[in-house]
Amino acid sequence: MTRNISPFLLEVVKNALDTIADELAIIIMRTAYSSIVRDAMDYSTAICDAQGRTLAQGLTTPLHLGSFFDAMQNLIAVHGDRVRPGDIFIFNDPYLAAGQHLPDIYIVSPIFIGDTLEGWATTVAHHNDVGGIVPGSNSIGSTEIFQEGLRLPLLKLYDGGVENGAIWDIVAANVRVPDKVVGDIKAQIAACRVGEREFRALFGRYGAATLRDCFEEIHDYAERLARAEFRDIPDGTYRFTNHIDGIGENPEPIVFNVALTVKGDDIVIDWTGTSRQIKAGINSPVPFTKAAAYAALRAVVPSEVPNAQGFTRPITIIAPEGSIVNPTAPAACGARGITGFRMIDCLMGALAQAMPARIAADGNGGATIPSIGGFHERRPFVFVETMMGTWGGTATHDGQEGVAHIGANQSNIPIETIEAEYPLRVEQYALIPDSGGAGRFRGGLGIVRDFRLLADEAVITIRSDKRRFPPYGLFGGKAGTSSWNILNPEGPGRRILPVLLTQPVTLRKGDVYRHVLAGGGGYGPSLERDPELVRRDVILGKVSVAHARDAYGVAIVETTSGFVVDAAATAALRAQMATAA
Fold it and tell me: Do 106 and 122 meet the contact criterion of CB atoms below 8 Å apart?
């Protein structure tokens, strides 16, 4: 269809929609009650057209954003002509409402211009707790979704502007920290209402007919740009295998096999051969699997492609039913985030074969989530954090540290916030020397964080990974170091905990939980690293003198004027190491 739309007008409208989506995100950040939403920023916002197709996304969590489309199509199919002005929908269930997992509660508002539905303001936020068998509702040990917490099908929290108080009462009665959960839902509602206001203002400025044409053109424009980028990827099928370490004390590896096929400007992502769904809480509902694919491909596209549904049109995803990437009900999925991160890591390994200059070596594997809950001074508390860490080396620079995984544009919670709001004391927060995988460009260093419990008693559950299968290096780079969960690391009760706990562990007052994030993988052969870069790392404390010698073949000598490279010894050492290899 030919549309007579000025490219200048299209750019103005596109940026206006981006601004509205970002404004929704800022409102949630400023008004949320819980640290997991307010500080870690584990939430997302989007503006959709009348058909529920995403037009613009807030700069928050990519692994949320690609899944809005399925949820909206389900909402429209179920409620259809019964949607009216003043409605606000609430839902979270993967099987009843095309959600992602129960802690991610959607708040969605239709936007009417006059009597005509023209768009949707949409939000999703990871809530501190939605009930279930463990505080934080991230149970690895759940075997079915009924154990994971409060299930919300598609419900009208407001029906034609009239509040449904029963839903509020049900939510409050089923969660451990109702003040934070209810407060965060109200923050989402506030964001949706601002989205409605600003969207209506846009229609008042340009008119419905013009904007409908602009919306269609935005989808088509996103598709054209995406296809142009995909045509630059060499045709072929690129395969990669990755793993999650496994569940519990005696883990069996969970396998991810991907075949990424590029043919012209079309891409097919096939997960055939990936492990079957398991009786544990890490199965990924298919909307989340789609979001992982979109996030990975969006990360390697350099152009300013709109974050609109049109971007997804050239992408076909094959996810076998009954697998861990497309489970059937009632499979548990409360901790499915680890599976989304691993899918992205697996896709990056495949893409590295096709476009090596654009892909970084493997990072720490996404967020570790420790959930610590109990009672303190007769009040319940639930601490949930998405701990982020490090990237692998790239073709041009070392891996970055203190950064989020590309699937989750989130932040570690500040120590001051943790200690002010929870009976916890953070006693260590540091980079780990020698943890980055050796390479021409070194992997980023892992991070360690120690939490001491100040309450009398609490329980902890942990979602982590990358111990048995540490972050991979690329093109001769070495793997990074492994992750660890350690209870009372310096005391007589020292205990190594699994990467994925199936049963919560009881903490007593004074106990310390230490999490060691994995270090990033290296890029390129380590013997090709510039000795001056190794010397700089030694000066900064990122690499020890011994590791410089063993991993890089660089002899560093400490003199009265500082650390210097012994050039002759380095040349001899590297020659010896090259021969041995």
Answer: yes
- Helices within 483-555 (DSSP H only): 531-540, 545-552
- Calpha distance 206→295 (Å, rounded): 32
- Under 8 Å CB-to-CB from 69, ≥6 apart: which residues? 52, 53, 54, 287, 290, 309, 312
What are 338-369's pLDDT values in tens digits? 999 999 999 999 999 999 999 999 999 999 99
Which burial class, exposed, middle or buried, applies to 125 when counting CB atoms under 10 A from its CB (0-12, 13-18, 19+)?
buried
d(CA 527, CA 508): 48
Return d(Cα 508, Cα 212) in angstroms, integer. 59
The ranges assigned to domains in the chain are 7-223, 360-527, 530-580
Closest Cα to residue 263, out of 294, 303, 241, 230?
A: 230
What is the structure's pLDDT at 2?
A: 56
Residue matched to tokens 């499979």: 331
> Is residue 452 pLDDT above 60, yes or no?
yes
Task: Round to whole Å and give the CA distance between 159 and 88.
Answer: 7
pTM for this predicted structure: 0.95
Contact 534, 552 (CB under 8 A): yes
What is the rounded distance in angstroms from the CA atom of residue 222 to the CA atom of residue 238?
25
- Residues near 225 by Cβ (< 8 Å), separated by ≥ 6? 301, 303, 304, 305, 306, 311
Concatenate the DSSP letters of all residues of 42-88 into one string: -EEEEEEETTS-EEEE-SS-HHHHTTHHHHHHHHHHHHGGG--TT-E
User: Stretch 260-276: mean pLDDT, rounded?
Assistant: 98
Alpha-carbon gap, residue 61 to 43, rounded angstroms: 6
The pLDDT confidence band at residue 303, using thresholds 50, 70 and 90, is: confident
Phi, psi values for residue 35, rounded to 5°: -70, -30
346, 340 Cβ separation under 8 angstroms: no
- How many CA atoms are closer than 13 Å to the CA of 524, on its beta-carbon side? 17
d(CA 384, CA 361): 28
- Residues written for the chain: 581
> CB–CB of 482/466 below 8 Å?
yes
- Cβ distance 442 to 554 under 8 Å? no
Phi-psi region of 181 (alpha: psi -120 to 50; beta: other; left: phi over 0): alpha
Taking the C-alpha atoms of residue 188 and residue 166, their distance in angstroms, rounded to an integer, is: 19
The two tokens of residue 26 are 């800022």
Cα separation, 293 vs 288, in Å, equals 9
Cα(45)–Cα(108) distance, integer angstroms: 10
Tell me whether strands 266-270 and 315-318 are parallel, antiparallel or unpaired. parallel
